[in-house]
């Protein structure tokens, strides 16, 4: 007689129930894995990229505001002046839009993409004797800030 082995006959469906149990447990685990992968991407990839993008947009707005104020500070009473500069082509692998908005009471440099937007105040250009700044651009190519005492068409 051998120890530890029993020769009881197993029911015919014993193998089927073990297979169904295996498939069900594996299915539940796969569903949980897919849910975790979706949450990990949203929380650990998109959120930091959006935070860094917002900071980069703020830096771009500050740099452009400074460039505009510098051009207006040295603007001649008669004549024109231009300053060429290069913005980053993309932030986080995607393009963005830069726009000057506001009126004589206050102007801002708005940098945006999708739902991420920054507004950086421009110090005193709109209220100066030279009038309001205006325009828009993207990061692609070389950009220019210009002043002309006779105005632009």
Task: Explain the overall architecture.
This protein has 153 residues and is α+β, with helices and mostly antiparallel strands. It has a domain at 42-148. Helices cover 39% and strands 26% of the residues. It has one helix and six strands. It has a four-stranded antiparallel sheet with strand order 4-3-2-5, covered by helices on one side. Strands 1-6 form a two-stranded antiparallel sheet. A hairpin with a 2-residue loop joins strand 2 and strand 3 (106-113). The chain starts with 13 loop residues before the first helix and ends in a 5-residue tail after the last strand.
Rough shape? rod-shaped
Number of strands: 6
Mean pLDDT, to the nearest integer, reads 85
First-residue to last-residue Cα separation: 107 Å
Overall structural class, as computed from helix and strand content, comes to alpha+beta
Query: Which residues sit in consecutive blocks of at least 5 with pLDDT less than 50?
Result: none
Tell me the fraction of residues in β-strands, as a range: 25-35%
- The spatial strand order of the largest sheet comes to 4-3-2-5
Profile the largest sheet: 4 strands, antiparallel
- Helix fraction? 25-40%
Series of H and E elements = HEEEEEE
Rg over alpha carbons? 32 Å
Supply the number of helical segments.
1
């Amino acid at each position: 007689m051998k120890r530890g082995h029993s020769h009881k006959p197993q029911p015919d469906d014993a193998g089927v129930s073990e297979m169904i149990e295996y498939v069900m447990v594996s299915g539940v685990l796969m569903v949980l894995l897919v849910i975790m992968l979706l949450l990990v991407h949203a929380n650990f990839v998109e959120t930091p990229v959006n935070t860094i993008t917002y900071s980069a947009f703020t830096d771009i707005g500050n740099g452009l505001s400074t460039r505009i104020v510098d051009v207006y500070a040295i603007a001649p009473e008669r004549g024109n002046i231009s300053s060429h500069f290069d913005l980053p082509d993309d932030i986080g692998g995607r393009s963005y839009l830069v726009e000057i908005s506001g009126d004589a009471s206050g102007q801002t440099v708005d940098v945006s993409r999708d739902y991420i937007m920054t507004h950086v105040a421009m110090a005193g250009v709109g209220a100066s004797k030279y009038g309001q700044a205006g325009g828009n651009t993207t990061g692609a190519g070389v950009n220019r800030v210009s002043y002309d005492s006779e105005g632009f068409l």
